Predict the structure.
Amino acid sequence: MTLNEFKEEFAKIRARGFVPTARRGPTGVGYTLEKLLGLRENNIALPDLGAAELKAHRENTSRLITLFTFNRKAWVMNPLEAIRKYGTLDANGRMGLYFTLSRTPNSSGLFLEIKEHAVYVQHTSGEVLARWDLESLAEQFRKKVPALILVTAHVEERAGTEYFHYYRAQLLSGHSARVLEDQLRYGNLVIDLRLHDKGTHARNHGTGFRAPEPKLDRLFERTEDL
């Protein structure tokens, strides 16, 4: 679907008002929009930016979504050593680092420090666990999400069924290290550590860079109402 085709179809969807969800649960808002648009793949073709990912969300939600994962050459401390020194037991009884980190220290004393054009996972003792260059993060973000069409929906519940009114669509584009740094400082971008002790090595499920759905527009340089 091209951007112009999306605009035409979205205008019709917006004019319909509230429509019942096509799937129960958290994914219903996105699935229903895709069904209404007749989309099989979750992207829109843009003339200058390639493919824009389509994301629908409920108004006033605070749910975090993963924008991208990035681990390459990030760990300063041996990950297994970090788990055994700062980890906690997970639901399966394994020692792990399953933390969502911001600039405020968590119960294990881990937090994000931003300096010298990089973001660090650091302990309150000053020990550094991992480091990401902000320019590299911006490039990874650009590769994974060249642009984003963010659709916002009013929500009503009627007789136990959700209804959505898709009333706003925005095209988000433009990436920079400066924007990511600002949003890390404001807490609108957080880092998920997801690794555990496998005995002889650390099993890393990918460090996630996540943002609350209502703050997604702040991670891009440009916002255009569609």
About this structure: Helices lie at 3-16, 28-37, 79-86, 134-144, 177-186.
